[in-house]
């Protein structure tokens, strides 16, 4: 038995899913195929987003498959690496923005609604208590999303996808506004979000291989 939970040979179990849940598998395959089709975003752009979201879901099977898919679609290693740094920045941003709830926990006059725009007014508290770390975070976030091998617009589209994957309402708000300001269309953002949905589903699907492996041991 392999000492790794993620040996590539586990993918042999995918063939068994057709017999275990044929109707569900067919619907899943149709969804994934449709979400990844060329649309407002190109096949290459969708595969880059898929690689980014696979790093959110931390699914090694998905990272492997979509990295190869992105390479086949023309993405460079530099582009993929920049996309994953957008993931890192948005995930860091989720932690930073949710720090506002720490302030609210100690504020008896805070709103009963957990997610209000006014919460962001409390970000200054983080900067006050940890100024060096907060400044370094800001510099990292700005660097990760600036123009590079990928355009600023596309990086913000990736950021919207990541924000939806991490379910951070603050991140969804700020990056959607940034993307629209840079010229992203509703169709492009919808395409990115559906790729995100397909990859979230894909992470669960791919790990059925591990489920079967564990069941049969």
Q: What's the level 1 CATH class of the domain at 58-106 and 115-216?
A: Mainly Alpha
C-alpha termini separation: 9 Å
Structural class: mainly alpha
Rg (CA only): 19 Å
Secondary structure elements and pairings:
Layout: H1 14-20, H2 22-35, H3 43-57, H4 60-72, H5 77-97, H6 100-105, H7 123-129, H8 131-145, H9 152-166, H10 169-181, H11 186-206, H12 208-216
What does this structure look like?
- The chain has a domain at 58-106 and 115-216: AhpD-like, CATH 1.20.1290.
- Helix content is 72%, strand content 0%.
- The protein contains twelve helices and no strands.
- It has helices spanning 14-20, 22-35, 43-57, 60-72, 77-97, 100-105, 123-129, 131-145, 152-166, 169-181, 186-206, 208-216.
- Helix 5 runs antiparallel to helix 8 and helix 9 crosses helix 11 (186-206).
- The N and C termini lie close together (9 Å).
- The model has no long low-confidence stretch (mean pLDDT 90).
TL;DR?
This protein is mainly alpha-helical and 217 residues long. The chain contains 12 helices and no strands.
Features:
217 residues, mainly alpha, AhpD-like, 12 helices
């Amino acid at each position: 038995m392999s000492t790794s939970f993620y040996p590539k040979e586990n993918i042999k179990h995918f063939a068994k899913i057709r017999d275990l849940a044929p109707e569900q598998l067919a619907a899943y395959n149709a969804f994934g195929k449709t979400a990844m089709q060329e649309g407002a975003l190109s096949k290459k752009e969708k595969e880059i987003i898929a690689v980014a979201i696979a790093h959110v879901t931390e699914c090694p099977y998905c990272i492997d498959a979509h990295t190869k898919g992105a390479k086949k679609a023309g993405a460079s290693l530099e582009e993929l690496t920049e996309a994953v740094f957008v993931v890192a920045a948005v995930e860091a941003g989720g932690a930073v923005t949710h720090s506002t709830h720490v302030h609210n926990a100690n504020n008896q006059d805070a709103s009963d609604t957990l997610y209000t725009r006014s919460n962001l007014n409390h970000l200054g508290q983080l900067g006050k208590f940890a100024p060096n770390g907060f400044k370094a975070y800001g510099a990292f976030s700005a660097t990760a999303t600036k123009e590079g091998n990928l355009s600023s617009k596309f990086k913000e589209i990736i950021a919207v996808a990541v924000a939806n994957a991490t379910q951070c309402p603050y991140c969804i708000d700020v990056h959607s506004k940034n993307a629209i300001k840079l010229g992203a269309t509703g169709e492009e953002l919808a395409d990115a979000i559906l790729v995100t949905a397909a990859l979230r589903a894909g992470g669960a699907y791919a790990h059925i291989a591990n489920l079967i492996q564990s069941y049969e041991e």
